[in-house]
Amino acid sequence: MERPVDLRGVEEGHAPYDKSLSNLIGELSTQSEDFRGRWAAHDVRYHRTGRKRFHHPLVGDVELDYEAFELPGDPGQRVNVYTAQPGSPSEEALNLLASWSAREPALDARPDDAAASAPLPGDAH
């Protein structure tokens, strides 16, 4: 099955004078007959949905589905939404990361006045 050339969101049409992009396309074209043929056929597209794998240093590999949404009021801008499959190891990893960033409620937010005024461990009286 033929697959489109994937430039990971880089589109020549949005940056026709980008020298580094032109150099990359030139390099790929000289090194890959397959790329050269697909590029010449304009078999290139922006992926609006799919699955990506990330490696997080604390929880390891995480596989997420994504969907890209165009921002109609700001041409060329997109918002990518990533989600993990329910019940997957990736969802568990994201939940673990989220739990680490959750903040504990402030002591003075407790309804019990005695708890709010209680000294913290290590406080001198």
From TrEMBL:
In this chain, the stretch annotated as Disordered covers 105-125
What domain of life does the UniProt record list for this protein's source? Bacteria
> Bias category Low complexity: which stretches?
114-125
What residue intervals traverse the membrane?
Answer: none
A Pfam family this chain is assigned to:
MLTR_LBD
All copies of domain MmyB-like transcription regulator ligand binding, residue ranges: 13-97
What InterPro entries does this protein's entry cite?
Answer: MLTR_LBD
**What's the name of the protein?**
MmyB-like transcription regulator ligand binding domain-containing protein
